[in-house]
Amino acid sequence: MLHKTKGLVLHYLPYRETSIIVRIYTEKFGLQSYIENGVRSARGKNKIALFQPMSLLDLVVYHSEKKDLHRLSEVKCSAPLQSIPFDVRKSSISIFINEVLNKTLHEQSENEALFFFLYKSILTLDHQLEHFENFHLHFLAQYSGYLGFAPQNATEIETQFREFAVNIPIEEDTKLALNTLFKANFDTHMPISKHFRAHILEILVAFYRLHVEHFGDLKSLSVLKAVFS
Asked: Which end of the chain has fewer surrounding CB within 10 Å, N or C?
């Protein structure tokens, strides 16, 4: 049966000579995999650029609850990204967020609130003209709430670190910043140094590791730190 839905591209893999299998987080069905034939050939109906990670799409899809791999009937870009692909700072943040999503999004069912949080987050990053150097911190703080493990305050993080022997200090000024961060939105400007930003990021990533099974290391973390150092 055909369904219309919005989607956020997470990842794709080459399949056979000219096709791909693309993982898309959708508004209607959560995380799904689709096969797109011929997209890597000159004669393909759709271009590979449509399926770059973090692309925002309008889709018409064939969906069956009995299948793990579905097909796309129609694909078009719903909101072309204007700045993320061309700004190294924004693209580094986008790559980082994409890696986090690939490690944490597993739900194969509708979650409209989560989908539109992710959709609007990408558009917000794309549209922000300044003060987006902390965007990834705000994202991790807000996203933890949708995943179900947002802390009440920084003291809760400190307690969990102590319980699980995570050896990262959380000083009083760090607690104040974390408490502000978990109550803030993307428009909240937090003027902090690059070293303090890296420290907050280390804490947030360690907090995610405690709550997300197989979260592991983030390859994009070193790039992100280098860009904002």
From this structure: N
